[in-house]
Write a structure and sequence with these properties.
By secondary structure, this protein is mainly α. The two termini are about 35 Å apart. Helix content is about 75%, strand content about 0%. It has two domains: about 150 residues, no CATH class; about 180 residues, no CATH class. The chain contains 15 helices and no strands.
């Protein structure tokens, strides 16, 4: 047993909650941002400006989300070069087979494949063959066996959201806003869930509200720790960057969740904010302002269909309050109360 422990230590295989739950997940979030999220932003910008090059560039970036996340995880786990490069194939397999749970599948499977690759790395005279083969076969095998089930588990969250849309708007607003907002921050794809469900209309508006509450909420409440860079990376990027901090201190998640529980029903009952643009935009929040562009596109679609007379001042006020002002204000107030109570300490929100 001592020999095995020494061998694993030599291979830098450390079974640690901090390494897997914080370092690996933080790296994965950056990989997701550098592929799917920035790609969506560029593609949306290209669509709005009518620039095909930007549309193509965004599409290319989105297509490598799985490999980018897996390689980021390997980097965080200090994988040797052959293992790191082989994780590109693992990430592609896990993300493709994982569906709505693609990021979560990549996270779990890439860690396992990376550690197996590290164990065999440089142990044979044909390392150039053995190490990538073991890494890819372990990753691909686990993807085939488990990624579809992980995807179904993630999609089950979508089933709860569909059930919520059958309720009257007040409760629907709370449930959809909170659940989709949580999904956006978790290592699962809220955008994929919304797209798979065709989540539009009032339910789509509530989803936008929940995503904005998470992104804007974390961006504003962590300004002390992260400054302008944190505002941009979280407010226009992804609140998933805070997942390692949430694992360390779950109380940091309360402010944006409370904000989403407030803004969701306001969106559905007061402002009647609907997402009648692309369903995928319902799960994007303020990422590159894709959610807001989707709502605006929906207004134009409704006007063209004759179901809406025009864009009103109430429409613009609702978007501003639901997507930006209220998430920032509520999250900041709740966060400050938690800081005073000692629930959130110094650097608990540091990226």
């Amino acid at each position: 047993m001592a020999d095995l422990k020494d061998f694993l230590t030599e291979k830098d295989v450390t079974f640690s909650a901090h390494r897997y739950g914080i370092e690996a997940m933080s790296a994965m979030a950056q990989g997701l941002f550098a592929s799917l999220l920035i790609g969506t932003i560029i593609e949306t910008l290209g669509t709005q400006l009518g620039i095909q090059f930007l549309i193509d560039a965004g599409t290319f970036a989105k297509s490598v989300a799985g490999p980018a996340m897996a390689a980021s995880i390997g980097y965080a786990l200090k994988a040797p070069p052959l293992v790191l490069f082989s994780l590109i194939a693992v990430g592609s397999a896990a993300n493709s087979l994982g569906g709505a749970g693609g990021p979560l599948a990549v996270y779990l499977i890439a860690i396992a494949a990376c550690e197996c690759g590290k164990i065999v790395s440089r142990e044979t005279k044909v390392d150039i063959l053995v190490t990538p083969a073991v890494t890819i076969l372990v990753g691909a095998g686990l993807s085939v066996l488990f990624a579809p089930a992980i995807g179904k588990a993630a999609s089950s969250l979508g089933s709860v959201i569909m059930w919520a849309t059958e309720l009257q708007p007040f409760f629907m607003g709370i449930i959809v806003s909170v659940l989709v907002g949580i999904a956006l921050t978790l290592p699962i794809s809220s955008a994929a869930i919304c797209a798979a469900l065709g989540l539009t209309g009032l339910a789509g508006g509530a989803a936008v509200a929940g995503c904005c509450a998470q992104m804007v909420g974390f961006a504003v409440m962590s300004y002390k720790e992260n400054g302008i860079g944190g505002i941009v990376s979280q407010g226009l990027g992804t609140s998933m960057l805070q997942m390692p901090n949430i694992i360390k201190n779950p109380k940091t998640w309360l402010p944006p969740i409370i904000a989403s529980a407030v803004t969701g029903p306001l969106a559905t009952c007061v402002f009647r904010m609907q997402m009648n643009g692309p369903a995928v935009s319902s799960g994007m929040g303020t990422c590159g302002l894709v959610g807001q562009i989707g709502v605006y596109t929906g207004w134009l679609n409704d006007i063209a269909a004759g179901t809406k007379a025009g864009i009103t001042g109430m429409d613009w006020l609702g978007m501003a309050l639901i997507c930006f002002v209220l998430p920032a204000l509520i999250s900041w107030l709740v966060c400050e109360a938690e800081r005073k109570a000692g629930w959130i300490g110094e650097n608990d929100l540091k990226l």
